[in-house]
Specification:
Helix content is about 35%, strand content about 45%. With about 190 residues, the chain is α+β, with helices and mostly antiparallel strands. It has one domain. Strand 4 and strand 5 form a beta hairpin.
């Protein structure tokens, strides 16, 4: 367990370091980065809607959602990091966020994946934005290429995973990841873009 905590700390530090290079030097750079991330979020949402058209209605009815794109590598020890946007649909406010993930287990792969979190309550969205989220545990087996799958492998509820008053979906865009791993994921506000 101590090894897992140390690995997660290293991956988190790497992601924070990488996130600072994503940050803005000027207000113009900040606005440009925000616009790029917002545009990427819309493109990602369209991929989710194409993979599972029901998600469009679910997002429209929700108090808010978050979308992240992550890049990761794994060989026994894995790590991933990325950026995204949490959107409050009532106020139309975007909050720019970062994420990092660390895992230990029997796994080999390199992948880019997208995550969609649909919040079931305004309180869940507020907690996510204000305090971030941390997850751990569970095994996973994923294999996808070309963005042809949506959902969380191994779940029986149409590809959705219910966590902390929200639905969590994963769309693998390219690459292959397979194995059983214990993963920890952390989401937090990007201080440079908010």
């Amino acid at each position: 367990m101590k090894l897992f905590i140390n690995i997660f700390s290293v991956v988190l530090a790497f992601s924070v370091f990488a996130g600072t290079s994503f940050g803005a030097d000027t207000d113009t750079d900040k606005a440009k980065k925000q616009a790029e991330l917002s545009k990427a979020t819309q493109t990602t949402l369209e991929r989710f809607y194409k993979a599972n058209p029901k998600l469009k209605g679910d997002v429209a009815k929700a108090p808010g959602y978050a979308v992240f794109t992550t890049y990761g590598l794994s060989f026994i020890i894995g790590g991933a990091g990325g950026h995204g946007v949490a959107r409050d649909l009532k106020t139309s406010k975007n909050t720019y966020m970062s994420m990092a993930q660390a895992s230990v287990g029997v796994q080999i792969g390199a992948a880019q994946s997208d995550t969609l979190i649909i919040f079931k309550s305004p309180a869940a969205l507020t907690r996510f934005v204000d305090k971030g989220w941390e997850f751990g545990g569970g095994g996973s087996v994923e294999a996808a290429a070309g963005g042809k799958t949506a959902g969380v492998p191994g779940t029986s509820s149409g590809g959705e995973n219910v966590i902390a008053d929200a639905l969590y979906y994963t769309l693998t865009k390219n690459g292959l990841q397979a194995g059983g791993a214990v993963a920890g994921t952390k989401f937090w506000k990007d201080k440079d873009l908010n």
